[in-house]
Amino acid sequence: MHARDQELLSSAALTAFKLNGQFLELAEHLARPAGVTATWWQVLGAVLGSPQSVSAIAREMGITRQAVQRTADVLAERGLAEYHDNPAHRRAKLVAVTPEGRAAISAINPHHAEHAAELAAVMGADQLAEAVAALRKLSEALDALDLSD
């Protein structure tokens, strides 16, 4: 391994950690007026298109199944999500958004659009699209690493 490769890996990781914090701060800022947290928004957003299992949500979000389960339980208690039977797996229920959950997400959209437009204006829409593509490629490359012991 070359020293430059090591420096790039470290720099990429530190930048990603900083970005994670920045995105979480932005998400909390956007979600708070709608009465939800960034984590609630993330889980609800994962099931807006169709109900998903807790494991599928966790894989998509890159967090533990247990963390998603705790959040889904809170969302169900608050009436923002509900559990449906899963035809593919008897014990693994599907998490589905309720009309109340959909309304909470809709309440976020105007401010979300504002901040998206502001970011695109600051960075340039094409450059922002290139950054997203590079981040996806980096994520795919990390998925391909052999992390077995």
Automatic annotation (TrEMBL):
PANTHER family according to UniProt:
MARR FAMILY REGULATORY PROTEIN, TRANSCRIPTIONAL REGULATOR, MARR FAMILY
Query: Which organism does this sequence originate in?
Result: Kribbella antibiotica
GO MF annotations, alphabetized: DNA-binding transcription factor activity
Please report the name of this protein according to its UniProt entry.
MarR family transcriptional regulator
Residues in domain HTH marR-type? 5-140
A GO biological process of this protein is: response to stress
Spell out the InterPro entries in the cross-references. HTH_MarR-typ, MarR/SlyA-like, WH-like_DNA-bd_sf, WH_DNA-bd_sf
Pfam short name (any one): MarR_2
Task: Tell me which Gene3D superfamilies the record gives.
Answer: Winged helix-like DNA-binding domain superfamily/Winged helix DNA-binding domain
Determine the domain of life of the protein's source.
Bacteria
Where are the annotated coiled coils located?
none
